[in-house]
Amino acid sequence: MINLMSDTVTQPGKTMREYMMNAEVGDDVFGQDPSINALEAKMANMFGKEAAVFCPSGTMTNQIAIKVHTQPLDEVICDHLSHIYQYETAGYAYNAGVGINLIEGTNGKITVSQVEAAIKPVFDWLPITKLVVLENTCNKGGGSYYTLDEIRPIHQLCREKNLKLHLDGARLFNALVETSESTIDVGALFDSVSICLSKGLGAPVGSVLIGDSDFINQARRVRKVMGGGMRQAGILAAACIYALDNNIDRLKEDNIKAKELGNLLIKMPYVEMVRPVKSNIVLFDVRAPETAATFREKLEQQGILASSFGPQTVRMVTHLDYSEDKHQEVLSKLEAMSH
Ligand SMILES: *Cc1c(COP(=O)(O)O)cnc(C)c1O
Q1: 326 and 186 part of one domain
Q2: Cα 172 to ligand 1 centre (Å)
Q3: Which of the listed residues 12, 126, 148, 185 has the most CB atoms within 10 Å of its CB?
Q4: Predicted pLDDT of residue 339
Q5: Cα of 125 to ligand 1 centre, how many Å?
Q6: Structural domain boundaries enclosing 292
Q7: Distance between Cα 171 and ligand 1 center (Å)
């Protein structure tokens, strides 16, 4: 099977496993795991921040950020397609006791004027707007991304209005290989940054939350209460370090393959529309009477796995284990499906 359901499906390769085998480990709840400490220091440095904390998932890093940046009865502003709203089981309400103020952006991206219009005035009967969350790249937005120039005015507004700004950067590096912008410049615009190492970067497990020392000290307490304090997890952190050192530049290949899939799909009679392909995600609608379910079934018979993102919407994500050979096979099978 050629698995394009997500870039989370990658298998740790031989060299990555050797790194994991050889990792120095300790008890991270006591702060004594050298591999985790090294990963946290590396990522804090990359983004020009003071500290970082290693977590089992990107859901946890996002949830911790929301919890630390807010008080119950506050409110978070984000796009309606955001992962924190769509795919984290309403954790903002459960973990942080906050409301959510959804903006209808364009392909998952929101603008400074939309954010400004969404900020609530202070009255007893309204939640207090406290946090803005941007997602880069935007998953349900079809892999669209923000440039720094688009983020800067939002950063400025947040400063003026005393709002915190968090980046859900699950796939940030898929954007940065396109824009050639630096992690330091990204870090300067956000109070906190969440990065997934288990997506396109190819580590088996792990996300890192980055911020200033006070924020990360509180984040460590919240990680513990969520049950995310792990012991000799340096085995996992070693895979993440390997991923950062070896798998960032090659994300460009994933983005190119995704674009090629999009270019072919848009010409196929069974495709209604393809969201603009900007990174490694291809989000497209199949044409009735085909549905996402019937189309996925046909794909599966061809040995290709994709996920469904709505009644007509199918998602394919390219990744480290999607080789050029597999890519050519998928392209020719997709083309043959029109006959
Ligand atoms: C995958 C993802 C996350 C985190 O997901 P986990 O599966 O919990 O690691 C967060 N935000 C976005 C945009 C994602 O795509």
Answers
A1: no
A2: 11
A3: 12
A4: 74
A5: 33
A6: 250-336
A7: 8
Distances, alpha carbon 328 to alpha carbons 7, 60, 321, 325, 332, in Å: 18, 36, 14, 5, 6
4 domain-assigned: no
What is the pLDDT at residue 115? 98
Residues 325, 207, single domain; the answer is: no
Residue range 102-136, pLDDT digits in tens: 999 999 999 999 999 999 999 999 999 999 999 99
Q: How many residues does the chain have?
A: 339
- pTM for the model stands at 0.97
Sorted by sequence, the CB contacts under 8 Å of residue 328 that are 6+ apart come out as none
227/261 same-domain check: no
Mutate to test the pocket of ligand 1, among 6, 9, 54, 83 (most ligand atoms within 8 A of CB): 83
Task: Give 66 Cα–ligand 1 centroid separation in angstroms.
Answer: 14
User: Average pLDDT in the 233-257 region?
Assistant: 98
Locate 267 and state its tokens: 């010409």
16 and 153 belong to one structural domain: yes
Helix (H, G, I), strand (E, B) or coil at 141: coil
Residue 278 in any domain: the answer is yes
Share of the chain above pLDDT 90, in %: 99
Residues 80 and 201 in one domain: yes
- Largest Cα separation within the chain, whole Å, is 63
Q: Which residue type, as a one-letter code, is found at position 194? A: S
Q: Using a 6 Å cutoff on CB, does residue 57 contact ligand 1?
A: yes
